[in-house]
Structures
1.
Amino acid sequence: MPQGNTKIFSIAVIPGDGIGREVVPATVSVLKQLGERFGIRFTFVELDWGSDYYFQHGRMMPADALDILRASDAILLGAIGHPKIQDNITLNGLLLPIRRAFDQFVNVRPAILYPGVQSPLAGVKSGEIDMVVVRENTEGEYAQVGGFVHHFDAKEVAVQTSVFTRTGVERVIRYAFELAVKRNGQKRVASITKSNAQAYGMVLWDRVFEEIKTQYPQVQTESLLVDAATVHFLKRPQTFDVIVASNLFGDILSDLSAAITGSIGLAPSANLDPLRRFPSMFEPVHGSAPDIAGQGKANPLATFLSAAMMLEHLEQAEAAKALDGAVRRLLQEGRVRTPDLGGSNSTQEVTEAILKAVSLQ
Ligand code: NAI
Ligand code: MG
């Protein structure tokens, strides 16, 4: 926490797997540069958790991992996932326990079609999409309730239960409305469920949404079924502002919102404990991308933008703005970009361009 006039922040850094090991060190170098410029002192606590750790120790992170993380002001995560380990082991061994233990109950995923970036959607122009998916992050379909009966047997049965609590639903929907009020957008909230088929949890969600919306008369609302929402995202992305959805639907819709705004390599996210009892965690939306890992092709901008969200959360607005602005200008100029955006530059070249931009401003 800040002490006296010097701001000191302890940042837990988990590069994780695959391209996480490329984009996270790049981000740390950018944060160091910003720290020098804005007089922010960071202590980076590097943690080698993830799949290699699993191969050595049989677990994704040590038993006291949460205690180590608890001592930090924020967590910067790359991605986890390895082709030789089942994804449910990596996810449940690292990512999901952190989100739950620190009650990071909202996952904020902005999707902006930046000037200079082409949407794959015909007729959608730069600057026209500016939406943010607010995803419930601690329960719902990812609550990990269920089990196997007759496991691995011919007659095996798997039961997977979604968990929707009134408290959990209410707090994420309220966050979405507060964000819509605060943010410089269209003051709209769209709630996405599938309550025609999911007749308990999502009916509760819809009901809570109806209740809360009456408290925000200045905000326009709509409720969509998730299948229809995918179509609306493609047909009228310009009309979305804040979207609030369950853990699973928010996950899926934020890959879609990333795709229509140019590249998943541009999509940042923040796992927030809005009550600030615990460290929040910042990570790109993308995964470990084993198909391009180790080739120096990964777009680091999603992680830079996640770091900008981290700076914002740490109340370092000036530094956050400088980083966000540097990314926007780089995209607008269009000279230095990774292959996912149609360029031929490397992760390192993009990083160098940003380092230069944040030191020059
Ligand atoms: P992915 O997001 O890793 O990759 C999807 C596609 O997007 C790939 O073609 C990849 O090359 C491309 N891509 C992703 N990030 C990019 C970047 N920064 N620059 C350029 N191209 C980029 O999703 P996928 O392939 O489904 O999952 C790979 C692994 O990551 C799996 O093990 C999965 O479980 C894990 N994963 C982990 C997440 C996390 O740690 N939060 C989130 C999503 C997936
Ligand atoms: Mg995802």
2.
Amino acid sequence: MLAEDLIAEGALPSFPSSAVDGYAVRAADAGRTLRVLGESAAGRPFDGTVKHGTAARVLTGGVVPEGADVVVMVEDVQLVGDDVTVPSGLRPGTNFHKVGDDLHSGDRVLSAGIQLCAAEIGIAAATNRARLPVRRRPRVALMSTGDELFEVGKTPRLGQIPDSNRWALLAALREAGADVNVLGIAPDEPEPLRNLVVEALKNADALVTSGGVSVGTHDLVKPLLESLGDVHIGRVKLKPGKPFTFAIVSGGRVAFGLPGFPVSSLVTFEVFVRPALRKMQGFAQLHRPTLPVRLDYDARPTQERTEYQRVTLRREGAELVADTTGSQSSSRLMSLAGAHALVRVPAGDQVLKKGSVVEALILSLP
Ligand code: AMP
Ligand code: MG
């Protein structure tokens, strides 16, 4: 993430540069036979001036010599010895890049708050910037909780399930720009859980846990966060993800207690954690883009909770058409795997009818 606007300190290109292999001439000499004075190759400029009746050979990327106002492509000339005949009707300014065509000195090249991707890094380098001011990635400690979890790849005992949230959340955190410290699986016991969290917070800006935030007797994360700081959110009117918990703990660090159910943890990550992490990094754009989609199913609401329904998208003409991924159970990760978008269905009893157009949160496009 770029922390400050990048302003051009000079023009780009910084010299008139040929776009083709050919001859640099004066447009006023169109249709004439000209004496070739020398050559301007990329990185090896010709240091004479093109005057009336003369030309200089130029190669792509070479400096267009002083005096010339047009480059004629090599395909369009006739060369006999040191004399070149150029066509009539030459337009000044063709076939070369003029000083400042891309950027003038003082232009804003890149804006603060953008993600530095390939082209942005390229343009910064093209303006000869060796260093860019960026925001540090937030350090996030990631922990799964639950006595039923075993490490993916190991052999389970009866009643155990793979710690899939760790891998899903690790991928989601990285996509959101975080530097992740994976703490592994914490048991449903207060002391070891507390020790792990306290230790991890020493080197983290944020803590993300999954599981242990419901109201069962083994749900220890909420009381732990209460003992370490202030729990600001202990439940949300959201489906899936009702037990989502947010706390500010020692030293202003933030803690997100995500529900254990795989879909709940990823949807609450998407709705609350991802924008927060992007905000911490100074991104101008915090949220996923939205696009209008036409529903191909009746999206039924939940009475008290806003629901984020998972859909696949397909193109039909100019439209995106959304179909449900099937059972929206919060334990059914198959409802999110392969989903292109989330359709936000407001709480209440208003069905979003098949055929209606709604804004959807785009995760990926088909
Ligand atoms: P909890 O929020 O701890 O009550 O967990 C709710 C459900 O999510 C339970 O069925 C758990 O087995 C499941 N679950 C919790 N943590 C994980 C995890 N790390 N990976 C996969 N499933 C999980
Ligand atoms: Mg649990």
